[in-house]
Amino acid sequence: MGSKKRSNDDSTEVVENNTLTDSSIVKNKKSKTEKMNTDSDTAAAAAAPGVASSGKDMEKRKKRKASDKERRRTAALEKYDGVGASRPKPRPVVVNSNSDEADDESLPSAAASSSLPLNYFTDLASSDASVREAAAESLVLRLQEIQKQYEMLPNKESVDGGLMLEAEKNDGLDNCAPHLRYALRRLIRGVSSSRECARQGFALGLTLPVSVISSINVESLMNLIADSLSVSSSMTGQDIKECLLGRLFAYGALARSGRLIEDWQSDKDSQIIKEFTNALIGLAAKKRYLQEPAVHVLLDLVDKLPTEPVVTHVMEAPELHKLFEQATEVGNPDALFLALKLHEKILVDHPVFSKLLPVPFSSGKFFSADHLSAISNCLKESTFCQPRVHSLWSVIVDMLLPEAVVQSEDVISVSSSSKKQKRNRKSNPVEEEATNNIRNFCQVIMEGALLSSSHDRKHLAFDILHLLLPKLPASFVQHVLSLQFVQCLMDILSTKDSWLHKVATHFLAELMDWVKDDDTKRVAVTMALQKHSEGKFDNITHTKTVKDLAAEFETEDGCTLYLQNLMNMFVDEQHVPEEPSNMKWSLEPCSLNSDQSQTTDDNSDIGSNEEKDSVGTTGNSDVLKSWVIESLPGILKHAKLSPEAKLRVQKQILKFLAVQGLFLASLGTEVTSFELQEKFKWPKTATPAALCKMCIEQLQLLLSNSQKIENPLSKGNGMEQPDDPVSYFMKFLSTLQNIPSVSLFRSLNEADEKAFKKLQETESKLSKEERNCGLATDPNKFHALRHLVVQLLLQILLHPGEFSEAATELSVCCDKAFSSLDLLKSDGEGEADDEEEPAVMDVLVDTLLSLLPHSSAPMRSSIEQVFKYFCQDVTNDGLLRMLRVIKKDLKPARHQEDQDSEDRDDDDDEDCLAIEEEEEENEEMGETGESDEQTDDSETVTGVGPMAVDREVPENSDDYDDDDGMDDDAMFRMDTYLAQIFKEKRNQAGDESAQSQLVLFKLRVLSLLEIYLHENPDKPQVMTVYLNLAQAILNPSTAESSLPLLQRMWGIIQKKIFKAKEYPKDESMEFSALASLLEKNLKLAAKPFKSKKSGVDPSKKKQSAAWNRYKIITNLGQNSTYWVMKIVDSRKFSETELEKILDMFRSAVVGFFDTRKSQMKIEFLEEVFRRRPWIGHQLFGFLLERSGNAKVEFRRLEALDLITETLRSLVPINENTQEDSKKTMKTHLKKLIHLIKELVANMPEAKVRRAQVRKFCGRIFQMVSSLKLTNSLLKGLGPDGQSACESALGDLFLNLKNTEH
């Protein structure tokens, strides 16, 4: 133990963990005791707890000597007395009274019974708070007892002279027992120790004796603290720090003991409080890190003092005056903090506060711009204690947001919004003052002092907002999340390697959590972030903050509040209402037949809207407005509202988009409609045309979304959905058009204006028909047409001059439908007799096709809805027109044709389905859009001409692609679009654009065809769609132009035709057509993959595209075979016709076994035989024969599983079918034997293949044995065959021979 290194925290101890008794002390000579005490006191006064390196070494040597001496003494006692020195227990210590009586002769009896266990001091440094408290309690109780015994001694000087320990006679503690004086010295030195929790424990140990033992002189104790923990020039930085912190803890213990208050109460003229204040402030001035805790120590004392001593003693301390005088110059936040707390205590404008606090003091004056500028240095310098936030800021936050403001905001947020309450809020002086305070604070301190400065001060700004958030009312968000703060936040978040990125991210997360359950706060934060980022917060910061905020509105009140704030932001209103309110106007008696309006002329000098540029050139405000417009339709996306509430919010959005997008006020910026009882506002600066178009597009999207969520109308209900968005919009549009001071945002030409009015009339008629339709008509047809009419009406405003003709055609189509009450009555039959009058459905289909190329997404959705409800009435002509678009292709260059022709196979396998891969276009195609590339669909498939699909087409329409009998005007519009694409093809610069436009057009038409197949899965026209889509897939240019287009076609065929539960069952579909189709599909299934023969290796991308196309074509052939066979099985064809089907499969099997060119998969044949067992049964003998005589060896091995599975289904082994199975097996036994001979004679070398042969033979042997045909098999094999089987199969064949059957 003596040689063990000890820390300097224990340097004040001569003996550790032993009992210090009076008898043991008396053993030492007096001179030696005085010398040791003198050395110890000198070391403690000069260097405790740390000294220079030489002083430390000397002190360590002293400790080792003392420790060795004590150890020898203890050993001697054990040797002679047999009693060892007992260690006191850690918890409540029992005084040790076991000591040698001979040692007590030189001490009085009272002193001899006194002892001070040193383990008390050890336990005071424990990390366990309960141990420290128990040790402090035991120590103070023991010191009280010792002091009481000391005071009872008649001759105290004899004890003081013989027992000084480390205490000096001139320390001023003359009335204290030596043990007490020693304990005080040790406790004072202990608070300077950094070991574990020594500071806390020794400070507690010092507080208790001072508070309960009145004999301790406070003034002397303060001197002892200063002397014992004084700083010398020989100390290192760490030693100095420990001494200063020790003095701070010692002063804290003195302040908490209560003795300063007691001394003042006993003598009010005492200067002890002033001296203590001077000492504490003087200590704080030595190091900056001491200032804030020193202030807290002083405030702890001030809280316990009455007001009088604070004013007469604390406030009069010279060091305090000096601190306040220099505070604003050096930037001392602790001085400001102390001044605020002292003023709160005394409530008097003391002159000492003149430079820190306004006179007279008030919250408004404190947060005035001038005063904040004066104390800004104090606030800025509070960053020194980061990452901890200075205590000053909690006081500032409480002053900024008093409880009265927070409570009033809470009451208002939960109460209903009324104008009376809002007026009360505005007239509340407390709220007005708080608003001014937070505004000034954010402008002067947050923006002027912190955000524009260093990273540390930006960090402080975020910390301040963390303190503000829990109490911050929603109305203050606009001041706190100011322009400069939001821009600073965006700058940090946009750079991930920024020093403050984690701080900003954490703040953003806290902000999101703060608005979690409060729609008002969520709206305020969203508006502030987007307003100061020009609507680009998420884009700049690479986050989804605004998107997530907008997605959390789930109530009607929240959606309405968010909507009103968006609208107010758009019209540039400075005051944003915090609660939703609906303006109701009291109507005077007046006629409502024509709308009377009132215009408020806020800004009459508004330029023409047509003169405005696009969004990108009108400034950042337009970017923000564009975000507002785009956000409106998404408000209801995540809201969980009832249909009635959702409709109310939809109407508000619809009105705003219609007003801002369709109209403008010719006089001023406000118009009041007395008919609608509403006031409409426009921005003071005219809205650019680009923003008006955005409003119209979002209006289209809103109407489209409303159509998707509407429930389909039941047939014959006789009622439309109550006040649906379409009806409301058309009424609203008509009402605004009747206001004299309101006009459309753009003027229309004569054709567009006529079409615009015609569509309004058409919608009105459709609405009446929908309400009055009976059981014979589906109201959904009229409802879908109404949506399409409204979308087309808006398209006219978006693209003037482009849709007027289509609008007229749609109106005419609807008018004809009204005259017949149903489009079914004009389905095109008998059209050959009167070709000048096209069918109404043909006109409708042509119109829909003409609208598709340039239509917006909402309009395409409406077109698809109309087609969904009318597709059952689509004629063959209309269907073929749609398919004609799918088969259209840009004419390839001549050199491309020549190169492609080299890659084509001349065999019939390449000309699958008898479809030419590329037909020549007419030379006039580029000029007229007409084409003769398709002569007659009956010629596209060999033998499909007599099908019912084509019999519905007029017999004399061999050249139907010339568009005879069609609506020429409507078809010309679609062909004009195609012709325009072909014209662009001639220009090399427009090649890519033309191809992409054509692909896009085809994809949109495919969507209509998918709807048709979904609604009509069992009609014979499904075959027509299938054949044309298959032709498009087989066309090489389809994959070259767009692989997604090819995949889309294949997906439609697969999902809507092959996997559909229903399929065409029309009896008029002739066998020859199905047989021809089956034959071509079998060729497709066996089609080999051909790579390019060019000398240059194709790129990986081209190889991948070619391989993907090959897989699609192969899958097409296989699945088409399954589908055609399903149709064949559903029909009752004759044996002769079915034999032709079998011949086709025989040819496929021959190709599989005899040529390597065939790429037919054996799994495909297995699936055919599994689905149609009769085919496998009929072809089993042929299959065995071809397998036994296969020209390609590996094909024989591949077919073994097919043979096994077919034989299992052909020859079931059970008691009921035993005889029949035996007969069938005998029929094919000879061919099986031949196959087995070939297999064992040509045993493959690969282990996998050999195992496959053994497995096949084992299955055959098992079946033969079960049917008792073993002898027949062995006889058929003959001696040579048996020998070969025994050699190749071994035990497998021997087990069969041992079976006697």
Description:
- The chain is mostly helical and 1301 residues long.
- Helix content is 63%, strand content 2%.
- It has 61 helices and seven strands.
- A three-stranded antiparallel beta sheet has the order 3-5-6, with no helix packed on it.
- Helix 46 (968-986) runs antiparallel to helix 47 (991-1015).
- The chain is flat, with a radius of gyration of 50 Å.
- The N terminus is likely disordered.
Proportion in β-strands: under 5%
Largest sheet: 3 strands, antiparallel
Structural class: mainly alpha
Mean pLDDT: 78
The stretches of 5 or more residues where confidence is low (pLDDT under 50) are 1-55, 79-113, 414-425, 575-618, 714-721, 820-834, 893-912, 914-972, 984-990
Shape: flat
Pfam families: DNA_pol_phi (PF04931)
Biased composition (Acidic residues): 917-939
Family: Belongs to the MYBBP1A family.
GO cellular component, one term: nucleolus
Write the layout of secondary structure elements.
Elements: E1 19-21, H1 22-26, H2 30-47, H3 53-80, H4 109-112, E2 115-117, H5 119-124, H6 129-152, H7 156-162, H8 178-190, H9 198-212, H10 218-228, H11 237-257, H12 259-266, H13 272-284, H14 291-304, H15 307-314, H16 318-330, H17 333-346, H18 363-366, H19 369-374, H20 376-380, H21 391-400, H22 403-414, H23 419-426, H24 429-451, H25 455-468, H26 477-480, H27 483-493, H28 501-514, H29 519-532, H30 537-541, H31 545-550, H32 556-570, E3 597-600, H33 620-631, H34 643-662, E4 663-665, E5 670-673, E6 678-681, H35 689-709, H36 725-737, E7 742-744, H37 750-772, H38 779-798, H39 804-820, H40 840-851, H41 857-870, H42 876-887, H43 894-903, H44 925-928, H45 948-951, H46 968-986, H47 991-1015, H48 1021-1034, H49 1036-1041, H50 1043-1058, H51 1071-1085, H52 1100-1130, H53 1135-1154, H54 1162-1171, H55 1173-1188, H56 1193-1198, H57 1200-1210, H58 1218-1241, H59 1247-1266, H60 1270-1289, H61 1291-1297
Antiparallel strand pairs: 1-2, 3-5, 4-7, 5-6
Helix pairs in contact: 6-9, 8-9, 8-10, 9-11, 10-11, 11-14, 13-14, 13-16, 14-17, 24-25, 25-28, 27-29, 29-32, 32-33, 32-34, 33-35, 34-35, 34-36, 35-38, 35-41, 37-38, 37-39, 38-39, 38-41, 39-40, 40-41, 40-42, 40-46, 41-47, 42-47, 42-48, 46-47, 47-50, 48-50, 50-52, 51-52, 51-53, 53-55, 54-55, 54-57, ...
